[in-house]
Description:
Blueprint: H1 2-13, H2 22-32, H3 36-39, H4 50-63, H5 67-89, H6 95-106, H7 109-115, H8 121-141, H9 145-160, H10 164-180, H11 191-209, H12 213-221, H13 224-229, H14 234-249, H15 251-271, H16 273-292, H17 306-323, H18 334-348, H19 353-357, H20 363-375, E1 380-383, H21 386-392, E2 399-401, E3 417-420, H22 429-438, E4 439-445, E5 454-459
Parallel strand pairs: 1-2, 1-3
Antiparallel strand pairs: 3-5, 4-5
Helix pairs in contact: 1-5, 2-4, 2-21, 4-5, 5-6, 5-7, 5-8, 5-17, 6-17, 6-18, 8-9, 9-11, 10-16, 14-15, 15-16, 15-17, 15-18, 17-18
Amino acid sequence: MAATIAVAVFLRVAGLGAGLWYDEIMTLVLSVRLPLAQLLTTFPGVNVHPLYSLLAHASIALAGESNWALRLPAAVFGVVSVAAVWSLGRQFLSPAEAWAGAAVLATSYHHIWFSQNARGYTLLGFATLVSTQLLLSALRTGATRPLAAYALVCALGVYTHMTMALVVAGQAAVVGACLLCRLRIAADWPAGRLVAAGAGAALLSAAAYLPFASGVLGALTAQAPHEAARVATAGWALGEAVRSLFEGAGAVATLVGVAGAIVGGWSLMRRRPLETALLAVPALVTLGAMVLLRQPVRPRFFFFMAGAAALCVGRGFGVLGGLARRGPSAEPSARVVVACALCFIAASLPALPRNYRLPKQDFDGAVQFLEAREQQGAQITAAGPACLALERYYARTWRCLEKADEFDSLDPRRSPLVVYTLADYMADPLLAKRIAAECAPIRVFAGTLGGGDLTVCAAGRRP
Length: 463
């Protein structure tokens, strides 16, 4: 595990200072740069992760503003999540299986990507793993201290992002179902203290959000999330998740990993139903709540399941290790488990260089290119999400196209160029259609973010 942690650190520190993408830029300019008092009382929108912004604010205050300092908290929690997978896995897996899960997570393309993303997703993943382990400890021993720690960890997770409340709701649903059905495993559970822990988590979360309660209510009732939900549907999220898995980890590693997770998950469900339910039900509750509330469904909202998926893969390798000893229920061969994990990691490693070769979004390259063309006399404009990033972070005064009819006002004599990204999220869908039909791409700046390439096109030329 010491060697595995060292590898996890290396893979997350390398390339930590690469160019920022749109959400990171918004985190920086709308939250992290604010004075501390304002940061604790301002809620710019549901896309903000308050606790992460506070940690990044502290990181930048200590080390100065830089891309790596902004991302440092994500990297730290990405590394400690690897240790948390090992610690949780040791509660119901063999040592070799727990290590395999931790090693898979340590070398995962997607976990590395999010560990270098200045957002609170690795913190959410860590909180999910730790809260699950604390809850299991409390259910097993009946002790009060794990429940007090559980309430605090859950509240910190909710303060990172409100979707953590759905994780807690999923855990509560599992415990509540066991108590209501009077299952044998729940006979000695401290029901009163479990309810108190849940109430404590709710009160602490409410207290954390109280300073910007009006902003939270305004963001939750705004129309924008419902409009985004038309694009980010459950079906779209599933397709994006599949595309991202194959693109990030490669076909062989993805297929083997999914197969291992299915086999391991089925085995865990038969052997340790409580642990399996606590790992899986929060994802079902999250999906159901987002669909019912007409909120956008994005794959990253389920990143907290990365640790659970890694544990299932580790158990899947254990099933193979048991077969090597003539029976899936036999004690797994540690050598087989380790060999399976190393082969899986070797199959997924070829995909990693892409994470370091390309930024998440190449705003830096696009800005340099556009500045050179502007000096040659070109008229530079922006459209969609690119506008805010260029104005607030790069301090460029280039005109922003917001409506389709503004496209007609571009002066063809000035060789107008339009830069855009994330076209599906343009406020005016007609503008996106006009650009696609009447603006020929002349340069595309690729990135690792799905659909996040920055495109520069020449207005008035048909593709």
